Amino acid sequence: MDDDSSNEEGKFVWKTSYSNIGEEEAQRRLGFRIQSLKPIAVDRILAEVNDGFGDDHVLKTKEKVYNQILQYLEIEGYPTEVEPDFKEASISDLIYATISPILSDFIRKTGRKDLVLRSEKEIIATDKETGGYEEFVVVDLISVTEERFVFVVDGTVGKAMRQCLLAMKDMRDNNGDGKVYGFVTTGELWQMLEYDGKSFRMTDSIPVVFRSMDREKERWMKEGSLLVNCMNMALKRGG
To answer: For residues 153 and 183, is the Cβ–Cβ distance under 8 A?
Structure first.
C-alpha cells in the first residue's frame, strides 16, 4: 500500500509517490514494458532452489496457512471487489493472516531472528525520485543502523503490479547487490516476482483463496500451498 498524496511542500523525502506514477513513467524507470513480463511456471522457478526444509516441516506450515485462511474467511467473509462491503483493508488483513505463519515458521526453523516484518515500511529510491509506504515488507536487520530489503507484498487494488515493481527496483538499488522479491495479490490470486538488478521474473498466478477451499483441501495443498514454497524461497535468497 502506498501513500496517494502528492509531494506538496516537501511532505515526503521522495519526489513522486509510487501511486502517482503512471504506466509510461513507471516503464521508463524500470527500463522495460510491464506487459512484456511473461509469467513462468511456479514449479520451474522452485526447482532452482532447495529450501533446506524437510517435507514434514513444510507440510506443517502449509496446514497452518490453510487453517488460518479458513478462519479468516469464517470471520470476515470472502474478499471480492463485487461485495458492497469490500475494502482494501480487508485484503491487508487476509495478507497478514496468510504470510504470518510462513515467516514465523521460517524464523523458528532457521534461527534467523534478524528477519522482521515491517508494516507501513518506507521505501525511498537512491536518487530520491520515487518512494512510498508499503504495507508489508520483510527486512534483514544487519546491524543497529543497517538493514537489507528481502521482499514486499502489495495488494493495492488496480495498482499492485506497477507499485510492486517500482518498490522492488528501489529496494534492490538500496541493497546494492543480491536479489529482492515481491508478491502481488488480489487476496485470491498471488504472483511472486524476482529482481536481481538486471531483470525481473514473474511466476504464474497461484490460487491461494477460492470459495470451495474448505471442501477442497487436497486441491489447496496441491495448488494454493505453493505460495509457502515461494515465500520460503524468497526468505532464503532475498536480501
So the answer is: yes
